Amino acid sequence: MNAPASTSMPRALAPEHRSTLLKTAREVSFPEGARLFEEGGRADRFWIIRGGVVDLHLRVPGRRPAVIESLGHDELLGWSWLFGPHAWRLGARAVTPVRAWEFDAEPVRGQFRDDPAFGLAVALWAGEVVAHRLHAARTRLLDLYGPYGSGADDDEA
């Protein structure tokens, strides 16, 4: 739950784009321990977390899945619905009871055609989330399996 401000929905989307997106939302909840999706499964929806914590994990051959990041309030859960082949790149599990807004991917992608500015805003937001999660995955995997850890304090090019 250390995501930069630009990945939280209220800071990433302008009020009119938040309003457009939330028109298609439905409230859902998941009990502690629920698996929301599995790596490789069909990505046909996404969520914005309203309360609780969800862990993202990555399968590592011969080892237990590695927790990449923990997500919380106002964070986007799931971006694979936006990019083909629409298969989950990670898995997700509720660490605590979770409340969220759930969105079906197809209607949201349809809104992109009707409102290109909305589509661009959501795509840029998702791109920021993907970039952040890629960095988190790299850092976490190096911490777990690298000979000297992530080198997080080192300067990056």
From TrEMBL:
InterPro entries: cNMP-bd_dom, cNMP-bd_dom_sf, RmlC-like_jellyroll. SMART domains: cNMP. SUPFAM superfamilies: cAMP-binding domain-like. Residues 9-104 form the Cyclic nucleotide-binding domain. It comes from the Bacteria. This is Cyclic nucleotide-binding domain-containing protein.
